[in-house]
Amino acid sequence: MTTPADVTSAEARAMAARQRLTGTVEQLQGQLAPRKLAREAADSMSEHAQSLAHASVKTAMRNPSAVTGAAAVLVLLLCRRPLGRALGLIKPPPSAAQPVHLRRVR
What we know:
Radius of gyration: 36 Å
Structural class: mainly alpha
Distance between the termini: 117 Å
Largest sheet: none
Number of strands: 0
């Protein structure tokens, strides 16, 4: 048979378990807060970007000719049309020179 002492001790254990559960839930809510997660992700990305930048600079200092060549290729790639027109290798289309509605009829 159940005695009042057993019920009281069971209630005390239940209250202690409830308090532990409440503490655990509060701790999890603090750890999983969206602002905290976003801040941690931003910090992590910032640290990773800094380490990549340092590694890139070290690599560039070890291989300056490769960096110069890559930069030259990038500039040529980005400026290929203006350079082609300047060197006369690419002729602009006639319609690009002047729109049809602005052309004079001779």
